Amino acid sequence: MAYELYYWPTIQGRGEFVRLALEETGADYIDVARESEGVAVMMRMMEHADHPPFAPPFLKDGETVIGQTAAILLYLGARHGLAPKDPAGGLWTHQIQLTISDLVAEAHDTHHPVGVGLYYEDQKDEALRRAQEFRDDRIPKFLNWLETVLARNPSGPAHLVGRAITYADLSLFQTVEGLSYAFPKATARALKKAPHVAALHDAVAERPRIKAYLASPRRIPFSEEGLFRHYPELDG
Question: Which residues are within 8 A (CB) of 30 and not within 5 positions of it... i.e. 6 or more apart?
Fold first, then answer.
């Protein structure tokens, strides 16, 4: 039975982290909201499920519905070999994912520092201040931590955890992609000091299934409607 992925049909957003895991494993899935009447189906699921998700993305596997990106990846990682089987390794992978989620949330908040219900144009002054701190302090801090994780991996710096790819590696790839789109100058500077992070990003992009996915119409382009938005004035 195919997985059913529920996420907004025109943006990468948080759903992209799940798509990358599904694509890497070759899992059979339906991107429901991109089907005819799919958004309406998604909204009905949110309204009537016994365990209603707070927001997309959420994944349906038979009768099981899982919300929250990190929880979905925890589930898929265990089922498809995208996380270590031992409890300590699985927990460490999940911890890295949660930290990446923090970075992604901070990236989003650069263009919505006051409120998510307001337009960017309504909070541009605040966004300039928030983006400066994010560029100067937060991007380097997060990437330095991830660089340290890679350097301290006993199996070598090719992966964040162990000897094989995990969903955390895929999520780091997507985060670097998003930061490079939103803050190309600041991210390029930070990556010069995080060579293991840069190398992992490049290696993931060349994995056969990921490479094919990135070149396909299934990969939605970045835009100023998603998590990562490029406003040149925010990229000092």
Answer: 2, 3, 4, 5
